[in-house]
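Pair request: fold both.
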Amino acid sequence: MHNCYFFSEKTSQKIKNVFAISYNGNLYFQIKAILKNRNKDDRAQSSSLQNSFVRAIMGGENYLYTEAELVNKWAAGTAVNFGVAGGAVYQGLIKGKGIVWDFKNKEFNIFKSCKDYNEFIEPKLENAVQQCEKHQPDMLQVREAISIIK
């Protein structure tokens, strides 16, 4: 399972305020930890499911990679002000965004947009830069690039 919650065996309460959990050979990052430890340029990202976890999809010596449903909180705030129609717009703003844990810099880098992804990948793997026909990068191409630089 990619998105989940973890519960304490002793108290049956949701586990909160942890960085990550290793479970059945998989590593899961808590969304709250991703947002708390993100690159300073990724500050507008948010989630309504901060106590949930996302599984690390791949990793290597440089990065661990995952994807999470995050939203730009300023765009979401604007959408919510438009009532029921705004709620539908808000749901459309939530995207599965690529996220890398950068071992060297000890921070998460969230690919907020195709442009943001390109700025991250260009110095590392120039031929993985995308043409940005849409606001979000092609996630299959993102995964391929990360599998090379991981």
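--- second member of the pair ---
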Amino acid sequence: MSWGARFEEELVRLGLQPSRARQLRAETDQQAGEHAAEPDRFFGPAHLYARHLVAELSAPTSAVPRYTSGPVMLRLSGVGKRYRRRTVFSGVDLTVRGGEVAAIVGANGCGKSTLLRICAGLARASSGTVHRTRRVGFVPQDGGTAGWLTAGEHFTLFGAAAGMVPRRARSTGTHLASRLAWKPRTEQLVQHLSGGTRQKLNLVLGELHGPDLLLLDEPYQGFDQGSYLDFWQQVRTWREAGRAVVVVTHLLHELDNVDHVLDLGAAGGER
């Protein structure tokens, strides 16, 4: 029996509906394929990962507080983006308050990353209005770092932009990295880091200045399973601290960890 079949069988045994189990199996197959890895090497034993995933899916309703009275950190009203004769999306409405997590989902090419850049003020909307809090952290899907610098030099550089003295920026960056099970090496250049570790650096840089709103574009690309789970634990920590988080994702089982889902494939509607 294949890893996927054992995984799906265990999910059903643990109480998931067969259709939900098949969906989760397809998502894990996709994630492993994107990393060119065999599922058993990427996720570990099928039955253990199934048990952990079921526990993760059930945790938010009992372990994660739902905030409803935090201040508005991001509000989109009728936002659209058009390139010449092509409309990417239109009529997007979304409100995210402190202590809430919103997910942006949709098929490839529907404009998820473009919308996130509009939220960050890095791209201009063709229509509608965007209101955001002043302190924003943006984590791109790739790029955002300089290969010829070390992680510590990134902490100093990004910290200086936020008015942090070098020592504080480096100590803060090192502390935030430890939450993602990463200890930056003093002399190692970023160009020698793995893709997953560069994404950890991007996450640290996005949080370095203590933003009230975090905008994350599939920030777990290249993560192994342990780092992936550390990331979602960090999301829960942010929301418990009253921060707002908007994350672009294509993995549907993550949606149990969020308060709002914005599906750009459904004419920009929120559900």
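Observation on the second member. The chain is about 40% helix and 20% strand.
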